[in-house]
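Reviewer has doubts. Consider these tokens.
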Amino acid sequence: QVQLVESGGGLVQAGGSLRLSCAASELTITTYTMAWFRQPPGKEREFVAIISWNGGTTNYANSVKGRFTISRDNAKSTVHLQMNSLQPEDTAVYYCARYHAGSYNYWGQGTQVTVSS
């Protein structure tokens, strides 16, 4: 079954860290730009970070710049999101997605991140 599977979410105190992973199953991601999004409770889904197919280019939402780092391991078909200095406003369901031809055409099911104050 073609899918992206996120993992690594959980409950953490403010100031803590989490590392999210996105693994591809029966889906090629090694030649595609990949991104992380999040959806806070009661809000719209928003962009978090993006990485080019070879990891050479990354970009971040202003709200996470300097705290989050996106990376990838193409040999393992995985993408990661290292999240440091987490704050309660980072609480959300986090999704990874594959970008192709102007749209995100594959999404994972999401992983919950909850940051307590």
